Amino acid sequence: MQTVLITGASRGIGAECARQFAARGYRVLINYCRSGEKAEALLDEIKAITDADIFCADVSDPDQVRRMFSEIEKEYGGTDILVNNAGIAQTKLFTDITDEDWKRMISVNLSSVFYCCRSALPYMIRKKYGRIINISSMWGQVGGSCEVHYSAAKAGIIGLTKALAQEEGPSGITVNCVAPGVIRTDMTSCYSEEDMKALSDETPTGTTGTPADIARTVLFLADEKASFITGQVFGINGGFVIT
Ligand code: NAP
Q1: I need a labelling partner for 78 at 20 to 30 A (CA). Which of 66, 104, 148, 203 fits?
Q2: Is 37 in the pocket of ligand 1 (CB under 6 A)?
Q3: Domain that holds residue 189
Q4: Beta partners for 31?
Q5: pLDDT tens-digit series, residues 216-237
Q6: Is 150 tagged catalytic?
């Protein structure tokens, strides 16, 4: 049984990834930070169909990430698949972004990917097998107005993915990136229905996306058969941006 760790799996895209991996018989390790009740409810749901476990850790904190991985190592040896999904967003004029906003955005969205990859890789390298899937954003590909710090962090994930893919390819480890467009989750709940309709209208497919759209791509990249795909960025956005 392969093991997958999904960061930020208590809600939204991460929770849907957890459900889809569970349905395919993977052992699912759920990471969460603040939404303990939701994460526990998801664990109960998933445990009914597969092996699963839960880990509370703020992935922006290197010590908490180290502790989470040492618990995973003790229980399961390591993780075969790592989905770096945890993230936060913030809409602000560039000139209003504070030092604190900047540090938090970079640490939760980008440094977390570094910390988790660093802890996950020794096991994968020993096994000469691994799958790392990083969740970026279309704003990381093209930049988003009033989301400069978010765009910078998400662009950083793309750079990290491409470089790490080159370094780890010889060890049988693929590293890819999924860049979602507008997906209906808590993260986009700040938009009114009118805004969401306008965003759908702007999208070539005429719709916004769902967590399931993203999870299906993550599962595809996690498959053993996806071994020839690495260092790539998959824009799942209905054609909203085409790079
Ligand atoms: P969401 O519904 O707001 O969920 C965010 C998840 O990240 C939650 O499970 C949250 O856990 C977790 N998280 C946040 N900070 C964390 C931390 N420090 N440590 C551990 N977990 C943390 O967001 P979403 O829409 O599912 O987004 C998932 C990913 O997709 C993010 O990286 C986001 O940037 C990216 N994305 C989303 C969209 C979109 O339109 N929704 C578009 C492009 C990219 P807790 O609640 O337990 O703290």
Answers
A1: 104
A2: no
A3: 3-234
A4: 55
A5: 999 999 999 999 999 999 999 9
A6: yes
Residue 184 lies in a domain: yes
CATH number of the domain bearing residue 37: 3.40.50.720
32 CA to middle of ligand 1, Å? 10
Single out the residue of 213, 209, 103, 226 nearest to residue 175, CA to CA.
226
Backbone conformation region of residue 77, classed left if phi is above 0, alpha if psi is from -120 to 50, else beta: left
Q: How many structural domains comprise the chain?
A: 1
In a domain, 19, yes or no: yes
Q: At what angle do helices 148-168 and 99-106 cross, to 10 degrees?
A: 30
In a domain, 185, yes or no: yes
Q: Is residue 240 part of a domain?
A: no
Give CA 22 to chain center in angstroms: 17
pLDDT single digits (tens) 140-173: 999 999 999 999 999 999 999 999 999 999 999 9
Q: Are 28 and 42 in contact (CB under 8 A)?
A: no
Is the separation of the CB atoms in 114 and 156 below 8 Å? no
Ligand 1 near 59 CB (within 6 A): yes
Number of alpha helices (DSSP H) and beta strands (DSSP E) in the chain: 9, 7
Q: What is the pTM of this model?
A: 0.99
By the 8 A CB rule, do 10 and 185 touch?
no
In which band, very low, low, confident or very high, does the pLDDT at 106 lie, cut at 50, 70 and 90? very high
Strand segments, DSSP code E, in the chain are 3-6, 27-32, 52-56, 81-84, 130-135, 173-180, 233-236
